[in-house]
Amino acid sequence: MLVDWRVEDTDKVDKPVGGDVIAKIREQVPYSDILFYSGSAGLEQEVYDKRLQGVYTAQRNEVRDEARELIEHLLHKTLHPKIMRGIMVSSLSQIDDMCFKIIEHKFNEEGCDKDAFADGFRKTLLKQAKGQLKYKEKAAEKDNDAFIASLHSTMILDSHKRASKIVELAEGDLHKDDHTTLSSLPDTISKRNWLAHWTRIEETDAQIVLAEDGKANYVFDQTEAIRMRKAINKAADILSKYVASLTSG
């Protein structure tokens, strides 16, 4: 997609710019590659500051050549399941970081019962795999401040359980629809973990079939990848706004 970064006259501050437009595009076409162009300076820095991914930039007078080169490159790029699997496995790191920021903020809120808050996480942590129990028991023995800080490590509290606790913490803070959407995040993370750890019993140009003892096979294809990416984008947007609301004061 070729998009004018400014979209509208920059004097009209209420009009959207490219960074706002891309969020809407990605809701429907999460794998889209976008070439933004602009006649003004600072475009690359703005894209960097907004942490936009899958975005290319060009000056207005260079857009034709840049677009031709980009199209030739993308024609050789395929959404092979193996590539999509890699994207899924790595795409939740930003969400993990936001989850920890929420935990840390809620723990430090005035009026928080720090003992009860930390003990809630201790109980969750100690339910995890016995193979990691000694490591987790050692962490659980720390005082509250050191223990909450240690939750930043996925070795202590994995992404799935961290997200599940965030869904609990956010209830009452978020609009009902947003909370319902966010509630699907642990399931999305579970499927990301399947992609990372389950045994691949079939892999073709169209799909990857994964198997784990005692569970039904999981089929990962382009449709499933897009569904998961949309869910991740929606959750990331909700969490980003939630973090901003918590830290704005």
Description:
The chain has 249 residues and is mainly alpha-helical. Helix content is 57%, strand content 11%. It is built from twelve helices and six strands. Helix 4 (81-90) packs across helix 11 (185-197), helix 4 (81-90) packs parallel to helix 12 (222-247) and helix 5 runs parallel beside helix 12 (222-247).
Question: What topology does this entry show?
Answer:
Layout: E1 2-4, H1 18-28, E2 34-38, H2 43-49, E3 55-59, H3 63-75, H4 81-90, H5 93-108, H6 114-126, H7 133-140, H8 144-150, H9 159-170, H10 176-182, H11 185-197, E4 199-203, E5 207-211, E6 218-221, H12 222-247
Helix pairs in contact: 4-11, 4-12, 5-9, 5-12, 9-11
What key attributes describe this structure?
249 residues; mainly alpha; three-stranded parallel beta sheet; three-stranded antiparallel beta sheet; 12 helices; 6 strands
> What oligomeric state is this?
single chain
Helix count, DSSP H or I runs of 4 or more residues: 12
The total of beta strands comes to 6
Overall morphology: globular
Helix vs. strand class: mainly alpha
Largest sheet: 3 strands, parallel
Termini separation comes to 38 Å
